[in-house]
Amino acid sequence: MLFNSFAFLIFLPLFMIGYWSTRGRARLWVMFLASLVFYAWWDWRFLFLLLFSALVDYSLGLLLENEQDDPARHRLIVLSVVVNLGLLGFFKYFNFFADSAAQLSDALGLHVTWTTLRIVLPVGISFYVFKTMSYTIDVYRRTQRAEHDLLRFATFVVFFPELVAGPIVRASRLLPQLHRDHRFDYERALSGLTLICAGYVRKVVVADSLAPLVDVRFAHPEAHSALSLLIGVYFYAFQIYCDFSGYSSIAIGIARILGFDFGINFDRPYFSRSFSEFWTRWHISLSSWLRDYLYIPLGGNRGGTLFTFRNLMITMLLGGLWHGARWTFVAWGGLHGLYLVSQRLIGPAYQRVVKSLRVPRAASNAFLILLVFHLTCFAWVFFRAQSFQNAWQILTSIASMQDISFASVDNKILVLKGAMLIAGLLFVEVLTLRPREISPARRLAFAASCIWILLLFGSFSGNTFIYFQF
Amino acid sequence: MREAKRFAVWFALLAIVVIAGDRIGAFLCSRVLLGSQFRFSRVYRGGSNAEVLVIGDSRGVHSFYAPAIEQLTGRPALNLSFNSMSMPIAEALLADYLDHNPKPRMVLIETTCVVVDRGLVSELRTYAGLSKRLEALYAREHPHAAAAGRLFRLLPYDSEFFLRALMYLRRSDQDWINRNVIAPQLAAGPRGRWSPRPHPENLESLGRLVPMLQSRGIEVQLLIAPYHRSVMVDMNEIIQSVKRSVPGAHVLNYADAIEDSRYFADGVHMNADGSEAFLRMLCRDGVLRCRS
């Protein structure tokens, strides 16, 4: 079920009634069953996979807690990782690796036949596999107690607001909250509703308005001028940001109304002055997951400069691959890895130059924000392109600077609308830089404005969320 | 319970504010829409003195540059063409035009729009409140959206038409035409033969429209504007279908009339220079009565 579907508009109030009219285990059942309905709306057959994943990690969590023998515990955690990554590998990467192996064998002149399967990618598998895997790892590390109640654990895994596209809410945050019976809280409900409204504006107004303009440029770059393609790349940067941050905002808002705290998943990433800052502001739940379960276990920055660079590159390359079974995603991750490495190499020298030239801090910050944004956009080209050839065509067309007059841009009115929506978004982000108490009257004005903006500028074609495919 | 009641009161207030703002906003939008110089607003505001009307899809937009028609003929002209306009929409618009404005002397119809599907119908919501004909077309294709538009009055203004109405609030939209020249790689592109097929619904609509205009004493010209030579279009099926649907109709086929690439913005659309060259041809052939 999509958050921006008519079915969800019916589902959510019904769920709320069920949720607030129950207590204790009855409420857990409501959450569990409603989440299954939410997921089954897409394809009920994959419920079994979801429940299998939950059951495996529930059992392994209990075994890990009860087992005192270290080698045995080690075997259990390896089993958990193998099962989880095995599911992900089969459903998401089997054909990718088979195709890549076939291409490699062809290149080597071996001409081996590799079998590919018609596999449907289960929605949200990347998110729930990471969630359950981190649970068993935490139990293994003894930083998390195993959950003994199967219903509670299953609800933690399938909880619908964050099931299919995150944020990845870890057991250490969510499970303790599932042990409490939340009472309805007026302030939390208002703040949750405000987040939901803001999320819908990001998705339905900004992201979905930009989507057709981006799609047509990436599908037929040869039919567009350099300026038109450059606009397409900028628009994609904001489309993916608003699409995913919109989804996260709706998910976090729903959870807040229910009494849960998911944390934040995006924090104005395009105002970052460095790539390390960018990754503390973009998809925070994933970047912190990769930090805690990949980068630090690899050794982090504890083993010297080259060792740190290696760990950064591995983390970002695998982070890229997590997004999808395509080499362009790996290239995107690799570029971000290179950015992080370069930043560590050049950063100190840059600071010395700025200091010696007495460049004002505001000017330096503005330069860095623009630099980080444009390098991020460069990487987005690989993320969005269907192939390296497609990405290369777009980048070379932009670099050629042929026809950079606005007259060469198609759909000028819609492009202007997109630009105005982005300007509005950035304006609101600047306005809300300082967190402050918001009165109910202001929240009402904000929510009403969001609804009017949705009515006047929304795109109601029912576009799916980009991160569903990951 | 007290918290829930407070929330219910807040939510009820929100609903009242949203509905009130929706109605006020929709009223303001309707004033803006009618006050705009956008072509469709001019239809419904009334008072147009156009003697030459043009209708068609994007090829109509970029083949018949209204300021050039006015300059050549000395008569006021209004181009009502729009991207992806199908014939039922053209029929409804022209009928509405005659309801609100004095009749023109001549209507030029860019006939290749008989191949257009119903893409533009979704945009009609903006003017549906001003036209029973457009409202019927829209509600037939999008019944749920039409119902939603009656509940939330701002929804019909969520369209490209309204954005254009805003853009042309203070200036005429009749200068809308391609200014660029076809890219060399497109001009030299492979020549694929293309046989566009008319939609029966478009032909039926044209079959009603032409006699309706002629019965009011309006001269009607059915034209096919030039294509770039890289697009080899076989017009035979369109011409034969139109002749079957509109008895006595004569389609003036200029598809291959212009060779020079400088007159095209892409394979199927001319630019301002191309439009002027094409209009001069129409003058030369007596289709348009031009000043010497």
Describe this structure as you would to a colleague.
- The complex is a heterodimer of chains A (470) and B (292).
- Chain A has 470 residues and is an all-alpha fold.
- Helices cover 71% and strands 0% of the residues of chain A.
- Chain A contains 17 helices and no strands.
- The radius of gyration of chain A is 23 Å and the shape is globular.
- In chain A, 41% of the residues are buried.
- With 292 residues, chain B is α/β, with parallel strands linked by helices.
- Chain B has a single domain, classed as Rossmann fold.
- Chain B contains 13 helices and seven strands.
- In chain B, the strands form two sheets. Chain B has a five-stranded parallel β-sheet with strand order 2-1-3-5-7, sandwiched between helices.
- In chain B, helix 2 runs parallel beside helix 5 (87-100), helix 4 runs parallel beside helix 13 (272-284) and helix 7 (132-141) packs across helix 8.
- The longest helix of chain B is centred in the first third of the chain and has 34 residues, at 2-35.
- The model of chain B has no long low-confidence stretch (mean pLDDT 91).
- The A-B interface holds A 20, 183-186, 189-190, 222-223, 403, 407-408, 413-414, 416-417, 440, 444-445, 447-448, 451-452, 455-458, 460 and B 3-4, 6-7, 10, 13-14, 17-18, 21-22, 25, 145, 152, 154-155, 157-158, 160, 163-164, 167, 179-180, 185-186.
